[in-house]
Amino acid sequence: QVQLVESGGGLAQAGGSLRLSCATSGSIGSSHIMAWYRQAPGNQREFLASITSGGGTNYADSVKGRFTISRDHAKNTVYLQMNSLKPNDTAVYYCKANIWIIGLRNEYWGQGTQVTVSS
């Protein structure tokens, strides 16, 4: 069973930075996409960034140039470096794994970590 555990959230000032971590346990295999999402109160969950098993990345326009997704294979961890934070970045941030096994997609979510940006 795959488990995802986010950490690194907290309080930051506008213009500041935070780095979120998503530690994975269990086998995620060689065909997967790891992603970060966020959800602010009253809003739908929003895609932020993804990284494939081959290292390809993709970003939402709202965070492009400010957020960077990366991974450390040795630590089984995916990161989200967030710079130039804004108050409207305040949300619960979630890590997601899409894992393909024998052609079937399996989806896993972490429990989320709160990020609060003050003005």
Question: What does this protein look like?
Answer:
This protein has strands at residues 3-7, 10-13, 18-25, 32-39, 46-52, 57-59, 67-72, 77-82, 91-101, 104-109, 113-118. By secondary structure, it is mainly beta. The strands form 2 sheets. Strands 2, 4, 5, 6, 9, 10 and 11 form a 7-stranded mixed sheet that branches. The chain has a 4-stranded antiparallel sheet with strand order 1-3-8-7, with no helix packed on it. Strand 5 and strand 6 form a beta hairpin.
Keywords:
11 strands; 119 residues; mainly beta; seven-stranded mixed beta sheet; elongated; four-stranded antiparallel beta sheet
Give the helices and strands, then pairings:
Layout: E1 3-7, E2 10-13, E3 18-25, E4 32-39, E5 46-52, E6 57-59, E7 67-72, E8 77-82, E9 91-101, E10 104-109, E11 113-118
Parallel strand pairs: 2-11
Antiparallel strand pairs: 1-3, 3-8, 4-5, 4-9, 5-6, 7-8, 9-10, 9-11
